[in-house]
């Protein structure tokens, strides 16, 4: 793989090409080499360590120099610390103080913006140094160093540094990580955690693989948060959580304890760890076996993102990195540092520093475009249009359209134009001409703008002409769907007319021409074409544009096309087309006239009354089933004329109805009996008329016809005394079903008796109830006071002087009289009547209440 040049580099330059080609999974990280000043430094020197702050970087080298760099790798400051390797650089959280240790035993702690500092030379190499995260604050002036011992330095109130030994005797200390009040360090035996607040050592996490040299495969420590420590050593990873101990369990134990929540093995040797949300970023040192030789050789380091599980892990992504001189590097030569403020990961090797960062939306779109996933790229750009910096939604859309055109998927390409081109009319016209060039104008036609934003009329006319050459149906569809304002209507009308000269009976072109005439408000021309074609839209055209004056002479044509719709339209618009005018137009087509007048009669029996006489003949000719209902409902029909027509055509039922209506019921009954020979209908007719003479005629006619007698016996019981019929039956005449008929007569008679008895009981009960109610009412007292008056003399009913004797008569009708004001008793001695009520209804014993004093 070619070396990566300076500047912005694509992540594929650092990753395994074969893996990228085979995998359709999008990478999680992108990579670029830290260049500018770093390139010059590493050409002459080699990186030994680096520390990352949100604002800057601190790089230590093998020649004892420390460089402060900006995020782009430019040198901002340089410190000559030693002549040998810088082992560790530590920064506090503010980035104002730095701690440095080197292989020759030098330790320096100083402020980048102040003169305060600590300088000490030890008689052994100091591998690590760590400042308190809050070192800037006066009460947290603490740091630790690690060589053969773990030493804690604290500044006392006399501004002097006090040293204390935290741990010794387990070999060289290779790593220290300080987070809040917790210090974690690794030596040859394992990892310890010390609580600086309680001054207690919390735990000891032993090293798993003791066969690995700790100086060649050093321990990697990383705090995920204030209580979670990630430990990587050899091929083992453990996630340790510091927890508070229950007060009841403390006794002589530390107040905190460590629980290992996840522990698992990896395939390769761990060179560095960093947290990424709930996942881990791991830097692996890889050794592989050669195909030609049995010995191992150093392969490219790998940067993996893994999802920790309690006893294993799930690989999310894996990238093999091509760093400079990777063939010469050992596991201890690699380091992984990360920026807590951003998801930036720095892979440090002696001759190269590579920055890995999470891929942003622009990178995601780049990958989708490279994989020709244009639909997803366009969707991603639309969703995140505010966050993308290197891409433009419309340009991605245009690339997608070009891709679809190249594939030959012209319909999809045209459909995307609607979404991508939007309101850019210039782009729209360019695309239309491109589709014309490739012969696909039809594909883009249905997606052209046709609302407030429109192209030039020439564009639409060009497409219409294209359709008119090859596809009449498609042309008709566009005319229906496109507003008439999009193009020059007259020009298209002329073109269609020219085509009709060659094919004058083409219904599609004729219909389209009618629609064009409608757009141009030449409704009479459109109406002629619709009628000629018998087109269903003719009625809608008439209603919509109020063309009733234009159809006065075309009523027959309309009814020939669709009688029902035509009649409904004519009747709904009688104010525009009078009944007389319609009748006049239909005079030569009686069958159509009948349809019109019939519906008119159905709507209103009185509107067309002057045509009822004519309708008799029309019904008789074209619609006999409705003749009888018409005769029944019409009050304006001349009965003599109707009778004449019915008799001429021998319409018995209609003649019977007319005879009965004209009062000739006996003749009507005779026709039923003689011509219809229908005893049931004759009986029904007699019941309707309820005439004793008709019953007598019916009995006389039926007396010598046994079937008729049976019918009469079955139905006559409730209208005529059956005995009259039975007495007149000749002796010996055989009558079918006589027994059943007699049984029915007896049953009907018993039913009548039961009904009468029931009615009598109800009547007696009601009479008694009402009598009792009346009696209770009449027994009630009647109040007489000074407000009541005599109905005869109209004076107060009671005298002003109650001491004098008086006599008052009160009737049950509540009328009151002075006794002397009442006339003498009438014809019934001892019975007195109210003068007022007796004039209306004289009833003896109407009721008298006499009050005397």
Automatic annotation (TrEMBL):
Residues 1-12 have a biased composition (Basic and acidic residues). The keyword Transport applies. One of its GO terms (cellular component) is early endosome membrane. SMART domains: CLH (SM00299). GO terms for biological process: cellular response to starvation; endosomal vesicle fusion; macroautophagy; protein targeting to vacuole. The keyword Protein transport applies. It holds the Pfam family zf-RING_Vps41. It is a peripheral membrane protein. Residues 13-25 have a biased composition (Acidic residues). GO terms for molecular function: zinc ion binding. Keywords: Autophagy, Cytoplasm, Cytoplasmic vesicle, Endosome, Golgi apparatus, Lysosome, Membrane, Metal-binding, Protein transport, Transport, Zinc, Zinc-finger. Plays a role in vesicle-mediated protein trafficking to lysosomal compartments including the endocytic membrane transport pathways. Belongs to the VPS41 family. This is Vacuolar protein sorting-associated protein 41 homolog. The lineage of its organism: Eukaryota, Metazoa, Chordata, Craniata, Vertebrata.
